[in-house]
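Hi R.,

As promised on Friday, here is the backbone we talked about, encoded as structure tokens. Could you run it through your design pipeline when you get a chance and send me back a sequence?
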């Protein structure tokens, strides 16, 4: 199939759930991807935080190839080593005792929702409620949608499951007032991704810990996007010194293969018993081997520290651009999870960058989001900033100030 055919037939045969740019990608390596004509792009979208160790990391590719030839799938009716090995590694990294594996971020959120409801039910809490936040994103399945604090995602799909209550992100007073005997859990992204790169304040995270202490509720952190080195710590919660009771991971975990995980401390994990929950593909041996390789690469190549260091450098470079271009309202984020908020919609700027060989993404309409692979170098950041600067010049002249 030629690139042209991919777009033509794709537009007819795939459900139109994505607003794709007319760009076909056929190959990736490190921080770069290629179209069918051999043109390369610097990838600062990184599969929306999936390609943390870069495209086709040789160690991940080797792990997948090797496992694919041994055992592609095994039913959870039996034991097999790969999810056990991965759970062990995740426990030692996170300090949380047990893992449940599934296939995506939304599914991991669903599992976490079921887990905290069961925990509440066992404690005799009637009509348990989960507090979540405005601008959050937890996935597209019905439960995860109900948890998501953005109307645009759930409009038209009602009725959604009940039992969720949304409060302003970083709103300490409203949160203190809202917690009562019905509250089973608080579900939060320590750094909101889809919502436009909003970082939780230390005060907000400390309040969460205090409320847990006072009410015995559970803290559930959705680190599907901000976890696994992205923010310059292995887990975003380490910036605050507040360990969750339940941690949700996906995206970067599989290095490109679909896998999600819910981690929990012993007492919470124990409410799931045989029959409580499950997934045919959960813990898939190939996905687990890929994930194990990702965790090893993150640690052995020092990518977490690198994300902190290169992230700081990148942020400084973006702040320099902010000095030059009045249309940039704010630069924010942690590590290599950065957002640049504009005073106007950013879609056209994304296209201008793409034409110049840089892939970036725009979220929450006006926020240019940067999630490059953590293997990105200073030189590649400079290259991206030069392209961005050039694109901003055209963008600013095309759409002069508001
Ligand atoms: C992407 C994302 C999800 C959903 O993950 P899927 O794999 O697309 O289902 C959930 N939570 C957060 C924070 C995300 O960024």
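Update: got your reply. Pasting your designed sequence below so it's all in one thread:
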């Amino acid at each position: 199939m030629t690139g042209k055919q991919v777009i033509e037939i794709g537009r007819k045969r795939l459900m139109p759930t994505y607003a794709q740019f007319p760009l076909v990608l056929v190959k990736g390596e490190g921080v770069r991807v290629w179209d069918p004509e051999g043109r390369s792009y610097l990838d600062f979208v990184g599969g929306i935080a999936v390609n943390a160790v870069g495209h086709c990391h040789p160690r991940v590719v080797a792990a997948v190839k090797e496992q694919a030839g041994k055992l592609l799938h095994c039913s959870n009716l039996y034991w097999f080593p790969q999810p056990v090995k991965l759970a062990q590694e995740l426990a030692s990294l996170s300090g949380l005792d047990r893992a449940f594996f599934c296939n995506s971020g939304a599914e991991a959120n669903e599992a976490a929702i079921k887990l905290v409801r069961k925990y509440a039910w066992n404690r005799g809490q009637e009509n348990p409620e989960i507090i979540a936040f405005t601008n959050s994103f937890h996935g597209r399945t019905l439960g995860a949608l109900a948890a998501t604090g953005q109307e645009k995602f759930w409009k038209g799909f009602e009725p959604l499951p009940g039992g969720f209550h949304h409060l302003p992100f970083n709103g300490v007073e409203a949160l203190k007032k809202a917690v009562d005997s019905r509250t089973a859990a608080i579900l939060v992204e320590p750094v909101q991704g889809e919502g436009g790169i909003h970082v939780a304040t230390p005060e907000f995270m400390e309040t969460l810990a205090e409320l847990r202490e006072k009410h015995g509720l559970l803290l559930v952190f959705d680190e599907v996007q901000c976890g696994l080195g992205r923010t310059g710590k292995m887990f975003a919660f380490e910036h605050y010194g507040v360990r969750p009771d339940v941690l949700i991971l996906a995206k970067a975990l599989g290095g490109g293969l679909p896998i999600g995980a819910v981690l929990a401390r012993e007492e919470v994990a124990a409410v799931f018993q045989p029959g409580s929950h499950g997934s045919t593909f959960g813990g898939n041996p190939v996905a687990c081997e890929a994930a194990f390789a990702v965790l090893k690469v993150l640690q052995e190549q020092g990518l977490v520290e690198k994300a902190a260091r290169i992230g700081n450098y990148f942020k400084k470079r973006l702040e320099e651009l902010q000095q030059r271009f009045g249309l940039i309202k704010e630069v924010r984020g942690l590590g290599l999870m950065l957002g640049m908020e504009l005073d106007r919609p950013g879609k056209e700027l994304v296209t201008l960058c793409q034409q110049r060989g840089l892939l970036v993404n725009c979220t929450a309409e006006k926020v240019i989001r940067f999630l490059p692979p953590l293997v990105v170098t200073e030189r590649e950041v400079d290259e991206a900033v030069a392209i961005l600067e050039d694109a901003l010049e055209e963008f600013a002249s095309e759409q002069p100030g508001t």
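One thing I noticed while checking it: Residues 233 and 304 are 6 Å apart (CA to CA).

Thanks again,
M.
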